[in-house]
UniProtKB/TrEMBL annotation:
This is Probable thymidylate kinase. The lineage of its organism: Archaea, Methanobacteriati, Methanobacteriota, Stenosarchaea group, Halobacteria. Its EC number is 2.7.4.9. GO terms for biological process: dTDP biosynthetic process; dTTP biosynthetic process; dUDP biosynthetic process. Keywords: ATP-binding, Kinase, Nucleotide biosynthesis, Nucleotide-binding, Transferase. The keyword Nucleotide-binding applies. GO terms for cellular component: cytoplasm. Pfam families: Thymidylate_kin. One of its GO terms (molecular function) is dTMP kinase activity. SUPFAM superfamilies: P-loop containing nucleoside triphosphate hydrolases (SSF52540). HAMAP family: Thymidylate_kinase. The gene is tmk. It catalyses: dTMP + ATP = dTDP + ADP. It comes from the Archaea. ATP binds at G7, L8, D9, G10, S11, G12, K13, T14.
Length: 200
């Protein structure tokens, strides 16, 4: 089973993901961008480049995803094990959807759909996606706005894209109010997972 955590920078995904390790010691905890491959390194180089081409950046993130899938996620799922990923494809749909929409170099009719379509032939859809819902100002404040993706204005359009994703796939997403205290957020996430994961 594949569970993903999604939300704006600073929404508290990593905090939740770390806490869940104690609840699911047998699970594989992973993340995107990956931090154990040169594909992930290439993504981080692009994140630091304020002048990166947004389409090139989409393909770097997607290359990292393809490698992550074949190297780690697919083999783990084939063994019937649980995977919990801090960010996954919805981050691309929401973030690169927003970057491409703002790009002056590329004019795609519907960037979010374009990114979704690129994934369709090869990617695996999560069974459950927890969306940690927080407003863009709080998110930017918590994240400390250290890179180009973390500015509140940009996060506003990322947040709109996440809303589109939740709307089109209400069965897969569970929305959790991430403006609450960490303990309350974690409790709600635990409930959602316990309800969805067999024998948990
Ligand atoms: N529910 C919460 N309320 C207030 N601060 C939080 C909450 N969850 C996380 N934080 C803090 O916000 C910052 C970003 O959290 P983090 O888990 O790294 O978010 P993300 O992985 O989504 O970027 C950290 O300093 C963390 O301690
Ligand atoms: C996985 C992924 C992340 N991102 C962005 C979100 C983050 O700003 C940045 C790095 O992700 P991450 O290290 O998870 O940041 P955080 O812990 O602050 O959420 O990359 C994308 O734009 N597209 C993607 O596909």
């Amino acid at each position: 089973m594949l569970v993903t955590l999604e939300g704006l920078d600073g929404s508290g995904k990593t905090t939740v993901w770390e806490a869940l390790r104690d609840d699911y010691p047998e699970a594989t905890f992973t993340r995107e961008p990956t931090n154990d491959s040169w594909y992930g390194d290439a993504v981080y180089r692009s994140i630091e480049d304020d002048d990166a081409d947004s389409l090139a950046e989409l393909f770097l993130y997607t290359a990292d995803h393809a490698d992550h899938l074949s190297r780690k996620i697919e083999p783990t799922l084939e063994r019937g094990e649980l995977v919990i990923s801090d960010r996954y494809s919805d981050s691309r749909f929401a973030y690169q959807g927003a970057t491409l929409a703002a790009s002056e170099r590329h004019e795609l009719e519907d960037p979010l759909e374009y990114v979704v379509d690129i994934h369709a032939p090869f990617s695996i859809e999560p069974d459950l996606t927890i969306y940690l819902d927080v407003d863009p100002e709080t998110a930017a404040e918590r994240a400390g706005a250290t890179n180009k993706f973390e500015r509140a204005e940009y996060l506003e359009s990322v947040s709109e894209n996440y809303e589109r994703l939740l709307e089109r796939d209400p069965e897969r997403f569970v929305r959790v109010d991430a403006s609450r205290k960490p303990d309350a957020v974690l409790e709600r996430v635990r409930e959602a997972l316990a309800g969805a994961i067999p024998d948990a």
